[in-house]
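Researcher: Next sequence.
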Amino acid sequence: MDPITKKLNVDHLIQLALQEDISSEDVTTNAVMPEAKPGEVELLCKEDGIIAGLEIFERVFKLLDEKTEVEFFAKDGDEVKVGQRLAVVRGDIRVLLSGERTALNYLQRMSGIATYTHSVAALLEGSKTRLLDTRKTTPNMRIFEKYAVRIGGGYNHRYNLSDGVLLKDNHIGAAGGVKEAVKMAQDYAPFVRKIEVEVENLDMVREAVEAGADIIMLDNMSHDMMKEAIAIIDGRAKTECSGNVTKENIKNIVDLGVDFVSSGALTHSAPILDVSLKNLHAI
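Model: Next structure:
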């Protein structure tokens, strides 16, 4: 993440997370460490996976005290192993104690998403299909979670509702049909934005193609129906497959040759990667 992105879009979110954990004071730390004292603690990996979020981990401590120093022995995207020493954090022991949980929460969550994404993306290797995330993210965590998807080898779908036109079933219902929805979107949206339409059956596929949709999302279709839909589209629009796509069933999609497959599971179902801060001592 570049410095401008962090300052404009990340710092205030980390501060909210810290405020959630320290509403008035860290009672325990203040009890055992009444005065500032320099110390260091090790960041250790307790599970094999892909590490992601090291800069965010560091930023937590820097926002508490800019004098905190973090020496890294790994970088985002690295495959890490159980017992691996990932970093050493040095600074005021009170800061190390108070920032520990928030820093680890970010790192564990982001690394878990990167690890899961990496394992799913591996199943698409050799195909033209790109793996996309969705907006099914944890509130106030989207920027972190979508970054972790990229680190894991996936790609980002639209970031938010301002990012692009995606006409889903309820939009189509509100507009009165696929053709009507696409026409209204074409009239309203700037020409630089692509128009994607979610379809659930072959009649909707035909309507979306005829209306001039740029991307057609095949939602919760059977394998045979998706195959027929792709034949109908015949290269006149990009194709995306969606609907309960997971690591366990994505292999059933590879042979279809769709351009994209989107999976909410990348962000809403990835388990954390276990990392911890250990061996805190004064220096």
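Model: The chain has two domains: 3-120+271-282, 123-268. Residues 123-268 form a domain with the TIM Barrel fold (CATH 3.20.20.70).
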